Amino acid sequence: MKVRGAVLREMGLAKPYADTHPLAIEELELDGPGPGELLVRVRAAGLCHSDLSVIDGSRPRVMPMVLGHEAAGEVLETGPETPGFGVGDHVVLAFVPSCGQCVPCLSGRAALCEPGAAANTAGTLLSGERRWRDGLHHHLGVSAFADQIVVSAQSTVKVDDDLPFEIAALFGCAVLTGVGAATNSAQVTADDRVAIFGLGGVGLSALVGAVVSGAGTVVAVDVVPEKLELARELGATHAVQAGEHAVSEVREATRGGADKTIETVGSARVLADAYAATRRGGTTVTVGLPHPEQMLSIPAVSLVAEERTLKGSYLGSCVPKRDIPRFIEMYKGGRLPVDRLLTHTLSLDDLNEGFDRLAAGQGVRQAVIF
Asked: What pLDDT, in 10s, does the model give residues 48-73?
């Protein structure tokens, strides 16, 4: 079948992307779903830093690729072996397909699914197949920047049809990763002193996750004043301008350092600051994805002498089929105001301009509306 989508053929083109057009909007050939797969009409797709990291080359992927990984849509066709799914179902896509059978999946750590990671690295679906023709690869099993896509049913979570698609899409990455980082990875509890470094869609989701978990102090850190103001509106007790004095200001606001610190920027330097802002016995969680060549330097002795914990969080340490419905119910109940994260909507043709906006730190979450 013929569909319309955004193809990245070369990483690392110069900004502004509105001029260099790294994403080409093309008519593409897509095969139908195979066993365990679904054909989905994408109705909304979010722009995420993980997409930008592929565009600018800091997160290398196989090329060429149909980009995008945060999306919601409706099922148009089901392949064989897709029990529980039917035509017309509304779905949210998760960017790690979970096989349910490998050791991490059986241990409740779906984000670390081994076949899912291998498929994402290879640019295929969970089956190992590619449904795009002409040598195109799938991005994280989703390829959300196309009006129709084929995905594994294991990348797909069925949701109620009363949730607007542009809000539903946020639960596939920003909310799943950020709220999960606070509730699952950092395990924020009542009266914890929490600091969030970086206030994009993931960082602000982590912030609302910390607030809903009962954190007593929530310090938001970013370079953009408008994001700091939004953080206060979403429950931050303190707002700190990122820079050379940020660590000391966070430590002052948290009376000696945060119990739980969450870094979402994808920078080894910012992660080092987040670690430095964490108190003795505290936990530093990193969500951002820096370039593979970046190295982190911390005082090694602090891990033992101060009983410090430094841990990574991928997909918010979530099980998507468990946590996406749970977070949606929290949103519907007014406890997770993640609709406040959506600051811009755009068309597929405006995608390059949207990534210029993201690279400049403007807005929080943008969504392509199909």
From this structure: 999 999 999 999 999 999 999 999 99
